[in-house]
Write a structure and sequence with these properties.
Number of domains of chain A: 2
CATH architecture of the largest domain in chain A: 3-Layer(aba) Sandwich
Strand content of chain B: 15-25%
Structural class of chain A: alpha/beta
Largest interface: A-B, 13 and 16 residues
CATH class of chain B: Alpha Beta
Bound molecules: iron/sulfur cluster
Order of helices and strands of chain B: EEEHEHEH
CATH topology of chain B: Nucleotidyltransferase, domain 5
Radius of gyration of chain B: 12 Å
Number of helices of chain A: 9
Distance between the termini of chain A: 6 Å
Shape of chain B: globular
Oligomer: heterodimer
Helix content of chain B: 25-40%
Strand order of the largest sheet of chain A: 3-6-7-2-8-1-9-10-11
CATH architecture of chain B: 2-Layer Sandwich
Strand content of chain A: 25-35%
Strand order of the largest sheet of chain B: 3-2-1-4-5
Number of domains of chain B: 1
């Protein structure tokens, strides 16, 4: 079984993806393991921009079965409307109009069962894509889910992405979507270990607490990486009181931030950053050895 | 012609409701006989689809124009499909009767 690590944060912009990309780099190098990134931030997958000379490999459509109403046989009785918990079906009898709104439908199938006229049939509707990328000989080292614009079926795309059929490495790094919504849950429930990335600010601490609540509810082992570490002490006090492990503190390095902006973080890694990631990799190795 | 106006209460003195899908009531004003009728918004607390359901309701009631604060994309699409005119007002201190008065000017 591959070891699955999710990298999550209570909000966007904490450097979650940079951490993921660096971990990929150092874990591959130090552990001599095959590492794969799964970019689960399906609304805005961006891990791919950090690698040069990427080669697109496979691409697969993710579809959802959506009911379609045949208005020739529909009697506009509105039974299906009553069964649809998600308000996805619009039936306007005086206008002889009946339609399903794909962006609201959750494919629960209740309306199919409800319709006495068999006027509803299911058809596949695209909600997103799963793309894989190669990096030289490193085949599908990166997989990403990409939600179709306008769709709100994040969780469905993620569920497809975190299925084991995509995995062909020993360590999987899930780059989770920001926040604490269902899509984050769909990502981190798959993981053996969760890394929470935070910034030591009052807002950062607030979001971190929400995340900690969530991972505790899911009963997952976890540790925290403090990005742009500085003096704000409440974060440290809180983590200490709660007995939560700080995996690393990443110093704020302005040149490095600039290279992030240029999408070239894996070139010219400063030595302080390198030693931080070497440390994290060792810690993770000790923790996860029993999963492999 | 029938006009739907989103309303916070079910009397003509109620103030205008800026929300469409989550309006408390829909006031249906009939320009032909100058009558008003208030309809409960059943989907005010719906988790999803409140806007599109509100659009479904007013279309079913046969209105030609809707006056509200704003319309979400799904509601807008459906109202457009039925060529229903959407009018946006941003003053929620106005009452329903004052809006009707202005319509009759
Ligand atoms: S499948 Fe479920 S969610 Fe979709 S339209 Fe039918 S009842 Fe609604
Ligand atoms: S239940 Fe079937 S017949 Fe009735 S409105 Fe829905 S689709 Fe039409």
């Amino acid at each position: 079984m591959p070891v699955k690590i999710a990298i999550a944060s209570g909000k966007g912009g904490t450097g979650k993806t940079t951490v993921t990309v660096n971990l990929y780099h150092f874990m591959s190098k130090i552990l001599n393991s095959k590492v794969q990134i799964a970019d689960c931030d399906v609304e805005e997958p961006n891990a791919s921009i950090f690698f040069e000379e990427l080669e697109s490999a496979k691409s697969k459509q993710v579809t959802q079965l959506i009911p379609f109403i045949n208005t020739d046989t529909c009697t506009f009785c509105r039974k299906c409307v009553d069964y649809c918990e998600f308000n996805a079906i619009i039936v306007i009898p005086p206008a002889q109009f009946a339609e399903v709104s794909p962006s609201l439908c959750h494919s629960c199938g209740a309306c199919l069962y409800a319709c006495p006229e068999k006027a509803i049939i299911e058809q596949p509707n695209e909600i997103g894509q799963i793309n894989t990328f190669n990096h030289g000989v490193d085949e599908s080292f990166l997989i990403e889910g990409r939600l179709k614009i306008g769709s709100s079926m994040q969780t469905m795309v993620i569920k497809d992405l975190v299925k084991d059929d995509w995995i062909n490495k020993e360590v999987i790094l899930y780059d989770a979507p920001p926040g604490t919504s269902c899509s984050v849950v769909a990502t981190i429930t798959q993981a053996n270990y969760i890394i929470l990335v935070t910034e030591p600010t009052p807002f950062g601490l607030h979001d971190l607490k929400l995340m900690i609540d969530l991972v505790r509810k899911l009963n997952k082992p976890f540790g925290v990486i403090i990005n742009k570490a500085d003096e704000y002490s409440d974060t440290y006090t809180y983590l200490k009181e709660e007995g939560i492990e700080i995996l690393a503190e990443i110093p704020f390095n302005i040149d490095y931030v600039k290279s992030y902006a240029q999408g070239s973080i894996l070139k010219n890694i400063p030595s302080d950053i390198e030693s931080v990631y070497t440390g994290i990799t060792q810690k993770l190795k000790n923790k996860l050895i029993h999963h492999a | 012609m029938k006009i739907a106006i989103t309303s916070t209460q079910n009397i003509p003195e109620s103030t205008f409701d800026l929300r469409f899908g989550r309006a408390s009531y829909f006031c249906i004003y009939n320009t032909e006989n100058n009558s008003v009728e208030f309809i409960d918004n059943e989907n005010i607390n719906a988790n999803s689809g409140a806007g599109i359901k509100a659009a479904e309701k007013v279309i079913e009631l046969g209105v030609s124009r809707v006056i509200s604060g704003d319309f979400g994309p799904k509601a807008k699409d459906l109202l457009d499909k039925f060529k229903i005119q959407m009018v946006m007002l941003d003053d929620d201190s106005q009452t329903i009767s004052s809006i009707i008065k202005q319509l009759n000017k």
